[in-house]
Amino acid sequence: xxxxxxxxxxxxxxxxxxxxxxxxxxxxxxxxxxxxxxxxxxxxxxxxxxxxxxxxxxxxxxxxxxxxxxxxxxxxxxxxxxxxxxxxxxxxxxxxxxxxxxxxxxxxxxxxxxxxxxxxxxxxxxxxxxxxxxxxxxxxxxxxxxxxxxxxxxxxxxxxxxxxxxxxxxxxxxxxxxxxxxxxxxxxxxxxxxxxxxxxxxxxxxxxxxxxxxxxxxxxxxxxxxxxxxxxxxxxxxxxxxxxxxxxxxxxxxxxxxxxxxxxxxxxxxxxxxxxxxxxxxxxxxxxxxxxxxxxxxxxxxxxxxxxxxxxxxxxxxxxxxxxxxxxxxxxxxxxxxxxxxxxxxxxxxxxxxxxxxxxxxxxxxx
Length: 367
Prior knowledge:
By secondary structure, the protein is an alpha/beta fold. The protein folds into 2 domains: 17-265, Type I PLP-dependent aspartate aminotransferase-like (Major domain) (Aspartate Aminotransferase, domain 2, 3-Layer(aba) Sandwich); 268-365, Alpha-Beta Complex (Aspartate Aminotransferase, domain 1). Helix content is 32%, strand content 16%. It has 9 helices and 14 strands. It has helices spanning 16-24, 44-60, 75-87, 109-118, 235-240, 250-265, 268-287, 317-326, 351-365; strands at residues 5-6, 67-72, 101-106, 123-129, 153-156, 158-159, 164-165, 178-181, 198-202, 213-218, 293-294, 306-311, 329-330, 341-344. The strands form 4 sheets. The chain has a 7-stranded mixed β-sheet with strand order 2-10-9-8-5-3-4. Strands 11-12-14 form a 3-stranded antiparallel β-sheet, covered by helices on one side. A two-stranded parallel ribbon has the order 1-13. Strand 3 (101-106), helix 4 (109-118) and strand 4 (123-129) form a beta-alpha-beta unit. Helix 1 crosses helix 6 (250-265), helix 2 (44-60) packs across helix 6 (250-265) and helix 3 (75-87) packs across helix 4 (109-118). The chain starts with a strand and ends with a helix. This is Phosphoserine aminotransferase. Residues 4-357 form the Aminotransferase class V domain. Pathway: Amino-acid biosynthesis; L-serine biosynthesis; L-serine from 3-phospho-D-glycerate: step 2/3; Cofactor biosynthesis; pyridoxine 5'-phosphate biosynthesis; pyridoxine 5'-phosphate from D-erythrose 4-phosphate: step 3/5. Pyridoxal 5'-phosphate binds at residues 110, 160, 181, 204, 246-247.
């Protein structure tokens, strides 16, 4: 089989070791005579898989004891609706005057999708936006216009399409939960979970196959769902049933658990962060070498995971992509909404893949 490097933004590359283990266990998991795909989610075999995955994720992210980890469905887009349905009740109680307001910082396509969905359920305040500048940075925090008593503040800490990443934890007023979409950089860098009320992430970028969504939620935020919240998406129901209120995405949880164990064996999140810093530095150095390529994101906000770039002469785009494919460098075409190119270099992308891309960048530019 020809060596390829998959730079897709999601569903994305998985560690080869994880895929090999899953292949070996496909027909018979640990002598059970069953594939994980065939197991009852309430049977002892799968319960052991779930508990180990939950425990390993809690260890990797140092999740405090007063936070619940939920394994759910719906993806990032689905969670954009689930979040207001679970949190708006805390500001719609009789003692709280006025309509509910959700604060958003608009830094790219995904935070934009989030605020549009939330506007179906409450008033939305765009506390800050970099849209006028083409989503090239995170707006300076001292310029944010936050709402006193907001239901919560929602941020996307890594914009998959636009390549903007937060390098700080936003400040919130006392009592206002901070909600973070970390879909495309969770487990790639160390975070202080205690600074957030809710963290959520679609698994298909840095954790596992599409279909699984992780939610890490502080326990005091489980009691505020609106009456219209579907029971299968009510965080309290999901937490009380240990993610088994309805049939969970069992195979996705299994693969995620293998990824968690793999990350632990490599040294955990701290070790992965150092690898990711090295990979991003290598790729950005090649893009910045001259004006043949350009990355438009402010240096202080550049993503380590999703790196969009443009050729100076965009008439060469198809030739560039064809040459990349011939060298086994796949899925480099940028998102249709922004054009250009994009290299997603998640945890599972080895530095050899980044070096192969850098070599091709230099070759194509004729350096």
